[in-house]
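Hi R.,

Here's the chain you asked about this morning:
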Amino acid sequence: MDWTGREIVLGVTGGIAAYKSAEIVSRLRHLGAHVHVIMTKNATEFVSPLTFQTLSANQVVKDTFAAPEYWNVEHVALAKLAEVFVIAPATANILAKMAAGIADDMLSTTVLATKAPVLAAPAMNTGMWTAAATQQNVRTLQSRGVRFCGPDSGLLACGDSGAGRMSEPEEIVKAIEAILRRKQDCAGLRILVTAGATRERLDPVRFLSNDSSGKMGFAIAEAARDRGADVTVVYGNVSVPVPAGIRAIPIESAMDLYETMLREAPAHDAVIQAAAVADYRAEQVSGEKIKKKQGEKWTLTLVENPDIAAAVGKIKKPGQVFAGFAAETEHLQEHAAAKLRKKNLDFIVANDVTRPGAGFNVDTNIASILTETDVTDYPLQSKRELAEEILNRILKIRAGGQSDAD
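And here is the predicted structure, written out as tokens:
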């Protein structure tokens, strides 16, 4: 990969592993990258700022209130400049600040403001790393898209042995490269994704719904975001966090989704309908909790919800790509092909939800992608991997049937 001119911001926090960060800067500079170092006050107790200034050939930023070298708001300028924002070492303290959104020094302020991918290389005592609070903070950050490199296990500076060693500089540089290598082939595209399950109210405490978790829709949204697209996700009931860096519109019912999609779809280059939408809703919704009447049956009258995909298909613009999903339990390809034609889809992703690894609330999928002319079967794979295949198919259609994504 050509590193020339790539802009890397490196945050260095107050841990003994800070000395390794000097080698990270040295390696990145030898590759041709521009490196901008932000140090916390505690970090300067372990390594002199002059070391990083010399290695990076840039001023080291450490004081929130220092007069800026150039006339700009420095934490905002670096936040915008970064192609990748790296924190190495990442102490328990900075992870906690990031998770809580605390911005009380230059590093925490800048990382909160950045839209760049963030890579953290943790380094701390094993007890601190395994502490429930730290692990919860890590999960929170991962749910927001923060990537982690390490920590490794081994003998620590405190004399303990276990997880908590900062990954070696060579591994951290490889992790940075992996982020920079991500395809940006969706840059400039506006992509609309639906996710999760709709809920149809019966009364204030009861509803009709399904088992959709939102994982597939969110995987598509995250993949599109990481490939440079401007992403909007419209989501119902989900069991996973909404991806960071994405415009998100919550809805509850199929009617909510219908109105939202008719409003939003025309403004997008591609629409991917992955939400599990209720086909029916209650004819009458009680304003009060429905009480059980001993010995009496409860007859529930349902009315059909509008066919959202068909409605979006009718208003599809020239050049717009429209994809849908078919979650079936029998006659998979036959039912999927019928939906493809009826709803004016460019392609449909079909999966048999009775197969292990292909149903709701799992991280994998087994699917087929159908068009009017062909069927492509995909083996068991992660939902993120399937999401990448879906985006590849969209790019292929937009390119007139040929794409580098093949």
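One quick note: The longest strand covers residues 321-328.

Cheers,
M.
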